[in-house]
Write a structure and sequence with these properties.
The chain is of the alpha+beta class and about 190 residues long. The protein is built from 3 helices and 9 strands, in the order ββαββββαβαββ. The strands form 3 sheets. It has a 5-stranded antiparallel sheet, with helices on one face. The protein has a two-stranded antiparallel sheet with strand order 1-2. The longest helix is centred in the first third of the chain and has 21 residues. The chain starts with a strand and ends in a 5-residue tail after the last strand.
């Protein structure tokens, strides 16, 4: 976690291996990016409406009719419910990104599989207030693998997740240039 009082990242004893592993990966990457001049501040889309779906909250921007980020808590996520017959619904905002033949997937922010223990909960994730346009390689690749890892962590610990987009391109129906996911692990079932 980031300690704002002293401006450094700290690790809990139980997560020290994860922190060391991440440091081995991130420090060379950050040094490379700093050297090449590609590190820059990314802007999050402001939200003006919070939509509570019970299992997740969507922080939505009505002006641009898109979600800025989603936040939810998960403990023992996953299950055996099928996605068959579930389709995205448009429940908020004036317009929806034109996905057909756009080259983008409907990228869940709170993934359906996290809530596959209950059909109604899973269905609640199929809403455009919980989706952003994602390139198929990201949505079906690294993002999906990260979702699986978070689900695995949730088998032992309660996790709180915030995820969304950064640097939205308003000329292209508010497509985010970058995506982020912040995962906080709590010990056991602690919420």
């Amino acid at each position: 976690y980031y300690d704002v009082n002293i401006g450094i990242f700290r690790c809990c004893a139980q997560d020290i291996y994860l922190c060391i592993t991440m440091a081995k990966i991130m420090i060379p990457l950050l040094l490379f990016l700093a050297h090449t001049g590609t590190i820059m501040c990314q802007e999050q889309l402001p939200y003006d409406t919070v939509i509570d779906r019970g299992i997740y909250c969507s922080y939505f921007n009505m002006k641009y009719s898109t979600v800025s980020f989603v936040r939810y808590t998960l403990y023992r996520g996953g299950g055996t419910q099928s996605r068959k017959g579930m389709a995205f619904r448009h429940t908020c905002g004036a317009k929806v990104f034109p996905y057909n033949r756009s080259g983008y997937d409907k990228g869940h922010l709170a993934p359906a599989q996290d809530f596959a223990y209950d059909r109604e909960a899973m269905l609640a994730t199929f809403d455009y207030v919980n989706a952003l346009p994602q390139r198929p390689a990201l949505n079906r690749g690294a993002w999906k693998r990260l979702e699986g890892r978070v689900r695995k962590w949730s088998q032992r610990d309660t996790v709180t997740i915030e995820c969304g987009g950064l640097d939205f391109d308003s000329t292209r129906h508010m497509v985010p240039k970058y995506f982020y996911k912040i995962v906080t692990r709590h010990g056991g079932r602690d919420t």
